[in-house]
From TrEMBL:
Gene3D superfamilies: Phosphatidic acid phosphatase type 2/haloperoxidase (1.20.144.10)
Membrane-spanning segments: 35-53, 145-164, 170-188
Domain Phosphatidic acid phosphatase type 2/haloperoxidase residue range list: 60-185
Keywords assigned by UniProt, alphabetized: Membrane, Transmembrane, Transmembrane helix
Lineage: Bacteria, Bacteria division CSSED10-310
Signal sequence bounds: none
Name listed for the protein in its UniProt record: Phosphatase PAP2 family protein
Keyword Membrane attributed: yes
InterPro entries per UniProt: PAP2/HPO (IPR000326), PAP2/HPO_sf (IPR036938)
PANTHER family in alphabetical order: AT30094P, SPHINGOSINE-1-PHOSPHATE PHOSPHOHYDROLASE
Source superkingdom: Bacteria
Pfam families assigned to the protein according to its UniProt record, in alphabetical order: PAP2 (PF01569)
Length: 216
């Protein structure tokens, strides 16, 4: 069974990285995959949340920082070295690869390390972090924030298209991010809400006047 899943993973990678290759994706996917493009918009959104939601926005900021750090460290510092799966560009040839800010087609042979040898593939930290943010924000704020899952999926897809991750890498990263976000959200609900500062503000109850002072 494991071999069948592995073969299916390779086949899906070949379809995304080779068969679906096109000029538009060659422009869009590197942008989606570059976190630096999202830093300023993310900081802007978090600033708006803090100004608009006040305490609720501050709590969201705190939870976001803790969740992203957790998902990133678990994926990069724990699971990647533990599992030790090589990136597709480091173990396969004929890869449509984006490296050093340019596209290249790697030769079928000989194989070469285009990413650092210890830069492992499973799980994808991009997928883990983006799905962690999407899950946390939607769980905490509800509303239209479910749309963040489409952005997280697009960023995860870009990692396969760029030739640096297999499909199972981004699926594993997505699951890790979702579970990490849910863990911290329920920790907030079960633990932090016991402290007064973390409790949401409630409107003060107005005294009810006794309108029936006498029976008619």
């Amino acid at each position: 069974m494991f071999q069948s899943v592995y073969n299916y993973d390779l086949a899906c990678f070949d379809v995304i990285n080779r068969s679906l290759q096109n000029v538009v994706f060659d422009i869009v996917m590197p942008i989606l995959s570059e976190f630096s493009y999202f830093i300023i918009p993310l900081l802007f959104l978090l600033t708006l949340f803090v100004r608009y939601y006040k305490k609720k926005g501050g709590i969201l900021l705190l939870l976001t920082v803790v969740t992203v750090i957790s998902s990133d460290q678990i994926s990069s510092a724990v699971l990647k070295p533990l599992i030790g799966r090589y990136r597709p560009c480091n173990e396969r040839g004929d890869i449509h690869l984006f490296v050093h800010h340019q596209w290249m087609q790697t030769p079928a042979f000989p194989l070469k390390f285009y990413k650092p040898k210890r830069s492992y593939s499973f799980p994808s930290s991009h997928a883990a972090n983006t799905f962690a943010v999407a899950t946390l924000w939607y769980t905490y704020l509800k509303g239209p924030y479910w749309l963040l899952f489409f952005l997280a999926a697009a960023i995860s897809y870009s990692r396969i298209y760029l030739g640096v991750h297999y499909p199972l890498d981004v699926i594993g990263g997505a699951l890790l991010g979702i579970l990490t976000a849910l863990f911290w959200f329920y920790c907030y609900q079960d633990i932090l809400l016991r402290f007064a500062w973390f409790k949401p503000n409630r409107p003060q109850e107005q005294p009810v006047e006794n309108q029936s002072q006498g029976d008619v």
